[in-house]
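Lab notebook, design round three. We kept the backbone fixed and only want residue identities now. Task for the bench partner: fill in a sequence for the structure below.
Input structure tokens:
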């Protein structure tokens, strides 16, 4: 019996399947059962999978007669024999060490699940462009330790949807009868699965690692489909019915967290839809959202979180929606693109998420530009960041007269500017980018110019 069963659902992913499956079979952790569940691909995907299976006996190919991500996942879990369940979506890929690291953590700590974070990537002209920074909203004090969820119930739902960046005890899933919602297609079934796992687990670890690579340039991704208007409503209904049927009791903190999560995910869905589809979605959630606004206990407990109320009012048409990014964020992006095209010499201050977004864009643009990176965090000095060595802030003294200095930081721009002025003994011209779009939006802006 294998230690980890990796479920890989597929449907017409020929451009991506070889890279994806190749990253799984080449794992340093060899004790894998690889279960490929194909839902009737017609583009050559299944032929590529079968070719892999002929060369690697660990691969089992299952043909699904239903085109449903949830059904495919349940089918794979039903056939799985491993102690643990992993998931890899077949347009993504994983680092060679991912399953070895996750396995070590879950075995040493005996928890129901372990989840890491992930990094985004896209491909262009045969090049793979990968973000350096992991995507996570989990606070540092929750990372890397065993969490007893009955004692810390607020940790149950810290990381939803990214179900593929971890592994789960198969015994835990089976004993709790946790199954995916078997709605048609790929329709956000990871949402209800995440909620059920979080609510029914007793222990977990959020690992401080990011070895899963999530593709952001697949035009057929469900997040880009305008036809999936109400699927997210179905996911919450499914999760809530499952919890109600089990008589799961949870305190008001978790109940409030579930309501806030629902509002945030509903708002995400609303914002990604076209105007007509968003209007239809709004009508379908109107009664529920009005009840939420009239829930005095909930409103009292979220005192100070005006973004929740704003989101509800936007979805109800009572307040104008805001862009995914501000005009200033677009202005900063255009400014950076022009500097790249004009071969400006650039010094980026702070090797964090904003610098990562800028360098992601620079790699995508394929513009050759002289770039230096400095950071005031000494633990980063000497490390590689998008192919550049991170230097000390004191190195600004050597470069500042020949480079455009850009502070790429959302929260500490003023502090960094004052530090720079202190280093050069006077005020100098510095460009501040304290507002930037997400990577996908930056690429769209670049392609529009």
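Proposed sequence:
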């Amino acid at each position: 019996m294998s230690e980890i069963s990796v479920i890989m659902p597929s449907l017409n992913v020929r451009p991506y399947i070889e890279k994806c499956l190749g990253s799984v079979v080449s794992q340093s952790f060899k004790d894998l059962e690889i279960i490929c569940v194909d839902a009737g691909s017609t583009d050559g995907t299944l032929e590529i999978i079968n070719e892999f299976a002929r060369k690697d006996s660990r691969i089992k190919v299952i043909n699904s007669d239903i085109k449903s991500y949830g059904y495919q996942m349940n089918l794979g879990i039903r056939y799985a024999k491993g102690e643990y369940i992993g998931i890899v979506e077949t347009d993504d890929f994983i680092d060679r060490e991912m399953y070895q690291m996750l396995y070590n953590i879950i075995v040493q700590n005996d928890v129901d699940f372990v989840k890491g974070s992930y990094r985004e990537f896209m491909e262009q002209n045969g090049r793979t462009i990968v973000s350096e920074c992991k995507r996570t909203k989990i606070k540092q004090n929750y990372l890397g330790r065993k969490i007893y969820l009955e004692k810390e119930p607020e940790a149950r739902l810290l990381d939803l949807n990214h179900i593929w960046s971890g592994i789960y005890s198969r015994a835990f899933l089976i004993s709790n009868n946790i199954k995916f919602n078997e709605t048609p297609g790929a329709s956000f079934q990871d949402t209800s699965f995440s909620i059920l796992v979080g609510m029914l687990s007793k222990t977990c670890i959020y690992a401080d690692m990011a070895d899963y690579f999530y593709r952001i340039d697949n035009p057929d991704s469900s997040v880009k489909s305008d036809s999936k208007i109400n699927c997210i409503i179905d996911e919450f209904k499914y999760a809530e019915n499952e919890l109600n049927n089990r008589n799961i009791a949870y305190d008001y903190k978790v109940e409030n967290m579930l309501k806030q999560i629902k509002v945030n995910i509903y708002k995400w869905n609303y914002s990604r839809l076209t105007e007509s589809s968003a209007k239809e979605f709004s009508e379908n959630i109107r009664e529920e959202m009005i009840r939420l606004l009239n829930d005095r206990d909930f409103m009292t407990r979220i005192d100070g979180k005006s973004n929740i109320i704003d989101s509800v009012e936007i979805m109800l048409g009572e307040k104008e929606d805001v862009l995914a990014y501000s005009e200033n964020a677009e202005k900063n992006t255009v400014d950076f693109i022009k500097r790249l095209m004009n071969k400006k010499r650039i010094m980026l201050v702070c090797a964090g998420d904003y610098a990562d977004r800028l360098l992601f864009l620079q790699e995508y643009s394929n513009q050759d530009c002289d770039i230096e990176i400095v950071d005031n965090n000494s633990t980063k000095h000497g490390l590689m960041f998008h192919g550049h060595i991170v230097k000390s802030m004191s190195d600004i003294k050597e470069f500042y007269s020949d480079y455009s200095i850009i502070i790429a930081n959302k929260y500490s721009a003023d502090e960094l500017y004052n530090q720079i002025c202190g280093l050069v003994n006077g005020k100098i011209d510095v460009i501040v980018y304290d507002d930037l779009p997400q990577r996908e939006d930056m690429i769209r802006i670049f392609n529009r110019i």
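Keep this in mind before ordering anything: The chain has 16 helices and 18 strands.
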